[in-house]
Specification:
Two copies of one chain form a homodimer.
Chain A (H helix, E strand, L loop, with lengths): L11 E5 L10 E5 L5 E6 L7 H12 L4 E8 L5 H19 L6 E8 L6 H11 L8 H7 L8 E7 L2 E8 L12 E9 L2 H14 L4 E2 L9 E11 L5 H24 L7 E9 L2 H13 L1 H8 L5 H9 L12 E4 L2 E5 L2 E2 L4 H8 L3 E7 L5 E8 L3 H8 L3
Parallel strand pairs in A: 4-5, 8-10, 9-16, 11-15
Antiparallel strand pairs in A: 1-2, 2-4, 3-10, 6-7, 7-8, 11-16, 12-13, 12-15, 13-14
Helix pairs in contact in A: 2-3, 5-6, 7-9
């Protein structure tokens, strides 16, 4: 059995089938009773769900020790009733956990525009939280799934330091919209401000650099709880670096698991942009390449189509890209050198691209900044999943 | 026979099969010997082809009277030879037309990374321009096609004023990248500056508001020649309005023909955004909706999925959208009122969406600005056309 969040000291989690979904696990808790800090990063979609507003405020209060997650119903576009139902869920859970409502984060994912069945939620919470000291992190990872085809979990350690996480997401979800969620735990003792800054930095290079279809949901969130068992000296560069590396590895691992499970995806695409003038420029170009429908379909066909890569690099506005400097590689094969087509064996390269992970490397030769973005190919499976023919 | 560009006084055009393509018309001229002004709008892609650089400079010189277009080879990513071949094409054509090379615009579309076969081009130009006073606008429209499934042409008039155009484009094109081209002619006599401003304004609301797959090419251009037959008083508001209306109608007609011919498209999607704070906000939201893969697949399935519309509206950064104010309509049916789901007959609405054109209307109730964007649905046909399985 792989290690997961409940293998981190001081972290409890489990899940039940409450009946919000027709079948399967759908109500989850993660409880960190001695949490010393909790950080959060949230969707920027203007139509954010009431759970986002509640949880953002809970994180800002700085005393969060638990999160209740339900799948099957996103409680989004549900008006005043939706807001009241979040508050009610937090109040009931807080009472059962011996906390205050402003210590309980809430996260919902699933269908939108439908009210939560609060009788089911209330009964479910009483069952779920009757004895909230389970170590069923694997079940929690399953309970947050919607159209995911597999649960997503990881565990990293370095000496005493531990960082683990669970996540869900596989593109936006039928019949309406869905969500990318990440719940991360660590055993370190750090300040709230330190954890928030470290999480933002890690999310920015991982969850924010993946894309299945450019669409973002109303309910995306990544939370991180620190259980406080291992003191971390925030002024010790080595310790801080070790922790940040673990946190980034954890976020990257989960982010890539999400992309691999992208709707209809058959291949992971990793786009590295090197030697840009700024990191922002590198990121925008990497995302443009990984998001281009023409690049995604080319990779689906194992086609080393450098013309489409150039097009996707060149269409990013406000860069200082100089065509005559650009190199492009697929896997380890150079296909464009200094803006001119290189000689390569197209058939053999295509063969090398018929694999799980295709890497595209773009060197701009402009500066020293770099970035990586991850995405997936665009297939008929995506069309099937998202068309929901009426 | 529908009227086209050569039904405008003073405009000549035709096409031949020169052999650049394996078969079919591939070399085109449009000649306006008495042209008083010529305007142009060009791709912003950093990797622009040498014909773009040449033609931008020709337009800036202010004496352009002809354009030579070839299909089958984009002459892009062709280095110094590519630049020389554009100059050579212009020089040969100019001599045959009795012009200077800086009076001849050049446009190329087709495969990239391959040198133009200059012997074929040179022989072709001598045949094409032996007697350059043909009125074969329809043939010109066919000669600029690449993966287009039909030629695109239109003609508008109002009293004495005439505006007509031809265009090509159907998404980006296999095996590499391709191009949207528009060539417009009018019989008015106006200044270069007036025509340039009017064309920019029209393109901004039409060609710039269509999208098949968000990918933009290295060679996109729209040119407009004024043949000078009918004087237009640039200080007469009524005359100016009439002309601008014709020009916009012509650009919109061609732009919509391009979207309808989008790769694999089965439906046109027209997204209107009303009552935004600024036109820029309205445009960005309309384009976000029309470009969303989840919206495009929903429309393919005739699914009145307002959740995906909200998601695509909400994900645009830097707007002041207030969820509780937003109305959404599919065709004539209100599906969201003031941010809350409306009651509607889903089955009957789905039936009404199983048509050629689906309209989506978003009312933000924030200000007075509006915009329309056009796109097409995302189908397995798009995947087939662009995957080119190796």
């Amino acid at each position: 059995m792989n290690k997961t969040i409940t293998d981190v000291a001081g972290v409890y989690a489990s899940s039940i089938a409450s009946g919000i979904k027709a079948e399967g696990l759908d109500l989850v808790y993660i409880f960190v009773p001695e949490a010393v800090a909790a950080a959060g990063v949230f969707t920027k979609n203007a139509f954010c769900a009431p759970c986002i507003i509640h949880t953002r405020s809970v994180i800002n209060e700085g005393k969060c020790k638990a999160v209740i997650i339900n799948s099957g119903n996103a409680n989004a576009v549900t008006g005043e009733s939706g807001v009241r139902n979040v508050a009610k869920t937090a109040t009931i859970a807080a009472e059962l956990l011996g906390l205050q409502p402003d210590q309980v984060a809430i996260s919902s994912t699933g269908i939108i525009g439908k009210q939560l069945p609060m009788d089911i939620v209330e009964a479910g919470l009483h069952t779920l939280l009757a004895e909230p000291r389970h170590r069923d992190g694997g079940q929690a990872a399953t309970g947050i799934m919607t159209t995911d085809t597999c649960s997503k979990t990881c565990f990293y350690e370095d000496g005493d330091l531990q960082v683990a996480g669970i996540a869900k997401g596989s593109g936006m979800i039928a019949p309406n919209m869905a969500t990318m969620l990440g719940f991360i735990v660590t055993n370190v003792s750090v300040s709230q401000d330190f954890l928030q800054a470290a999480l933002l930095e890690a999310v920015d290079k991982t969850f924010n650099m993946i894309s299945v279809d450019t669409d973002t949901s109303t309910s995306d969130m990544v939370l991180c709880f620190a259980s406080g068992a291992v003191p971390l000296d925030e002024t010790n560069v080595d310790q801080v670096d070790s922790f940040k590396r673990l946190l980034r590895n954890c976020c990257q691992d989960l982010a890539i698991q999400i992309v691999r499970d992208g709707e209809g995806a058959s291949r992971l695409i990793a786009v590295q942009v090197h030697n840009a003038q700024t990191e922002s420029e590198a990121k925008r170009i990497a995302l443009s390449v990984v998001n281009s429908p023409l690049v995604k379909t080319a990779i689906h066909g194992a086609d080393p189509n450098w013309g489409r890569i150039l097009m996707a690099v060149g269409k990013v506005e406000g860069t200082l890209v100089q065509p005559e400097l650009v190199d492009v590689r697929f896997q380890d094969t150079q296909v464009l050198i200094a803006g001119a087509p290189a000689e390569f064996d197209r058939k053999s390269l295509a063969e090398q691209m018929r694999v799980d992970t295709v890497s595209i490397t773009v060197d701009l030769h402009l500066g020293e900044a770099s970035a990586t973005a991850w995405g997936c190919d665009l297939t008929k499976g995506y069309i099937d999943i998202n068309t929901c023919y009426n």
